[in-house]
Amino acid sequence: MYHWDFGAVWVYHKLLLSGLAYTIVYTVIVVAAGLAVGLVVGIGRVRAPRFIAGILRAYVEVFRCTPVLVQLIWFYYALPILTNIEMSPTSAAALSLTLYGGAFYSEIVRAGILGVDWGQTEAGLAMGMRNKQVMRRIILPQAFRHMVPPLMSQSIMQLKNTSLLSVIAVPDLLYQAQSAAHDSYRPLEIYTIAAVCYFVVLFPATLWSKRIENRLAKQDRSAA
């Protein structure tokens, strides 16, 4: 029978904490960048000329229909060969996860915009507003309420996706756990601690997302 010994791996706690901090900071960066990309692409798919909207759709489908792990490896190994631009593991991972997340965020934004009645746009234009003003002042504020729950769910998925960064040597939590496991010969304890760390971060975020979703649903029922 295996004898668990978490005390033997205490020496690696700072290494694991640094990996956890890196994971959280990295998640914040790729989520913020992905939201920016998703907002631009989502609006573009709805309001841009057909040719540009077609290009944006192609981008979305490529990133939605290929595994994020394949994208990470491609950006790190293949893109530098094609462009003659060297990329560090962190920059390749950031670019890959940003574009991957942006593709999914854009679909959420697009669905939110299309969910607002077209009459709202017509009313804004009749009042003399320009298309950009209508989008900023009328459409997006209404659409945002419906976007919040799926945007938060996708952001939680982005945090989970960071666990794949270890394949290109980005020093996230899983990478540091792998290093500690190889050094200590205690993989069960190390990976258990890593799993607990992910749970401690993800579970409150999931509860928070659910609470906001329930609150918005209650407000919608009250307004109705």
Automatic annotation (TrEMBL):
> What's an example of a GO molecular-function annotation for this chain?
transmembrane transporter activity
Protein name (record): Glutamate/aspartate import permease protein GltK
State the function annotated in the UniProt record. Part of the binding-protein-dependent transport system for glutamine; probably responsible for the translocation of the substrate across the membrane. Part of the ABC transporter complex GltIJKL involved in glutamate and aspartate uptake. Probably responsible for the translocation of the substrate across the membrane.
Which residue ranges does the record assign to the ABC transmembrane type-1 domain?
20-209
Presence of the UniProt keyword Secreted in the record: no
Q: How does it assemble?
A: The complex is composed of two ATP-binding proteins (GltL), two transmembrane proteins (GltJ and GltK) and a solute-binding protein (GltI).
Per the UniProt record, one Pfam family is BPD_transp_1
Q: Where in the cell is it found?
A: Cell inner membrane; Cell membrane
Q: What is stated as this protein's family in its record?
A: Belongs to the binding-protein-dependent transport system permease family. HisMQ subfamily.
InterPro entries the record matches? AA_ABC_transptr_permease_3TM, ArtM/GltK/GlnP/TcyL/YhdX-like, MetI-like, MetI-like_sf
Which Gene Ontology cellular-component terms appear in the entry?
ATP-binding cassette (ABC) transporter complex
